[in-house]
């Protein structure tokens, strides 16, 4: 949960950013559609006002035929006007015009009001009653520029507001996720299986149902775990007693049986002995209490007490690890027993790194594909995978120590690396295997 919260925050931030961009684009498009009409209407009103002002001036002096009026150069390419006489000749005669106006009349016939000509937006107004028309025009490029300038400013303002909203929303999301982060921190140090363990009141009222659900789940897990541990312990004890009796009877039978039957009885006794070892491991894994009894364990001393016949075990002198001696003995016993059953005669044990035990035998080994399948089954805690009981039990012991069991590739034989967590490292769970 602790690792998931930053990921949730990043996804929310990306979603907010995408929403802000889409919202800005949508608003800018809406502004462009609205502003385009309004700006054009405003520019048309400006043209009409300019035409009415000039019309009043020309009405005062209808016979004025002064020279061509020159407009300042900075405005020459944006605005133009013409005074056209349609009554004197069949062809319209240009009476007066600005320097930027075309040399021909805007219209061949009188056209009052607004009209579009190539490159121009033209407004026409009659001057007097003698057939004269005043045309005031604005370049269409100027109109487009004005529209886009308004749209750009509106889009920039919208984007600025969207960015501020995004920053504000991101801050609010971070504040809203903060109680979940605190809950995650509490869960990381919370022992669900401790007697009377509870998370207590929630920092936010809406998180209280989650607290209750976690506490109820912890109670159910503790109850189920206690039941499974008690059942497994009783079952292991119940099995160990008849197995010890079987071993004693087989020992007597070996002394009294004919020589021809002794190899078969010896194989039966070896199988019973392996079964008894499994029971010992189960007792160690399912014993009462969930805390490991860690201590410094000399490997040579530990291995000397393991009953593994027909196998030469090489271990460096004074090699020690910090582990639970009972669980470590159970794991190594199963790994050595696996080596014997698969035809190995020699096992080399080493410590390639602190808290790491490497076990390699000289047996036939397995193929690369089989090794990868075994490693995948262990990583997924797949009880129905290709792993045998020995590897599974060793894997559980490694997990109980906060580590893992790895199967590295090797040129000859079969190799197992038992990685044990350090004493100060958090454990992945109790010595009890996962349900």
Describe this structure in words.
Helices cover 52% and strands 15% of the residues. By secondary structure, it is of the alpha+beta class. It has a five-stranded antiparallel beta sheet with strand order 2-1-5-4-3. A five-stranded mixed beta sheet has the order 7-9-10-12-11. A hairpin with an 8-residue loop joins strand 11 (404-406) and strand 12 (415-419). Helix 6 (325-341) packs antiparallel against helix 8. The protein is rod-shaped, with a radius of gyration of 46 Å. The two termini are 21 Å apart.
Morphology call? rod-shaped
The largest pleated sheet is described as:
5 strands, antiparallel
Radius of gyration using CA atoms only: 46 Å
**Which whole number gives the mean pLDDT?**
76
Class by alpha and beta content: alpha+beta
**H and E order:** HEEEEEHHHEHEEHEEHHEE
Number of strands: 12
Concise summary:
The chain is 52% helix and 15% strand. It is α+β, with helices and mostly antiparallel strands.
Highlighted features:
8 helices, Helix Hairpins, 435 residues, 52% helix, alpha+beta, five-stranded mixed sheet, 3 domains
SSE layout and pairing:
Blueprint lengths: L3 H57 L18 E7 L7 E5 L15 E5 L2 E8 L4 E8 H49 L19 H49 L5 H24 L9 E4 H6 L7 E3 L5 E4 L1 H17 L4 E8 L2 E6 L6 H12 L9 H12 L3 E3 L8 E5 L16
Parallel strand pairs: 7-9
Antiparallel strand pairs: 1-2, 1-5, 3-4, 4-5, 6-8, 9-10, 10-12, 11-12
Helix pairs in contact: 1-2, 3-4, 4-6, 6-8
């Amino acid at each position: 949960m602790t690792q998931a919260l930053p990921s949730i925050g990043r996804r929310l931030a990306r979603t907010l950013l995408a929403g802000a961009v889409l919202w800005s684009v949508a608003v800018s498009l809406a502004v462009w559609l609205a502003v385009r009409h309004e700006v054009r209407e405003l520019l048309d009103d400006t043209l009409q006002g300019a035409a009415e002002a000039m019309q009043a001036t020309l009405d005062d002096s209808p016979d004025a035929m002064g020279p061509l009026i020159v407009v300042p150069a900075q405005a020459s390419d944006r605005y133009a006007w013409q005074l056209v006489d349609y009554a004197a000749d069949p062809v319209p005669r240009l009476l007066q015009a600005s320097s930027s106006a075309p040399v021909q009349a805007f219209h061949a016939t009188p056209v009052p009001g607004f009209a579009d000509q190539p490159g121009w937006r033209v407004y026409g107004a009659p001057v007097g009653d003698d057939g004269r028309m005043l045309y005031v025009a604005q370049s269409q490029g100027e109109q487009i520029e004005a529209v886009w300038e308004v749209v750009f400013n509106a889009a920039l303002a919208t984007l600025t507001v969207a960015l501020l909203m995004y920053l504000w929303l991101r801050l609010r999301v971070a504040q809203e996720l903060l109680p979940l982060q605190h809950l995650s921190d509490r869960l990381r140090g919370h022992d669900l299986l401790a007697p009377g363990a509870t998370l207590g009141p929630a920092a936010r009222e809406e998180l209280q149902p989650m607290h209750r659900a976690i506490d109820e789940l912890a109670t159910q897990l503790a109850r189920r775990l206690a039941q499974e541990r008690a059942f497994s312990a009783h079952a292991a004890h119940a099995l160990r007693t008849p197995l010890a009796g079987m071993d004693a009877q087989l020992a007597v039978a070996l002394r009294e049986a004919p020589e021809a039957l002794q190899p078969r009885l010896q194989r039966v006794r070896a199988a019973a002995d392996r079964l008894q070892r499994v029971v010992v491991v189960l007792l160690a894994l399912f014993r009462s209490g969930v805390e490991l009894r860690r201590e410094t364990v000399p490997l040579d001393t530990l291995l000397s007490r393991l009953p593994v016949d027909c196998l030469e075990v090489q271990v460096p002198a004074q090699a020690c690890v910090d582990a639970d001696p009972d669980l470590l003995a159970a794991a190594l016993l199963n790994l050595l027993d696996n080596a014997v059953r698969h035809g190995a005669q020699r096992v080399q044990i080493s410590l390639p790194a602190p808290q790491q035990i490497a076990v390699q035998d000289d047996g036939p080994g397995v193929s690369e594909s089989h090794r990868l399948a075994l490693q995948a089954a262990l990583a997924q805690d797949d009880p129905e995978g290709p792993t045998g009981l020995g590897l599974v039990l060793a894997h559980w012991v490694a997990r109980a120590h906060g580590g893992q069991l790895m199967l590295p590739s090797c040129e000859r034989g079969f190799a197992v690396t038992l990685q044990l967590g350090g004493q100060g490292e958090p454990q992945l769970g109790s010595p009890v295997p996962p349900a």
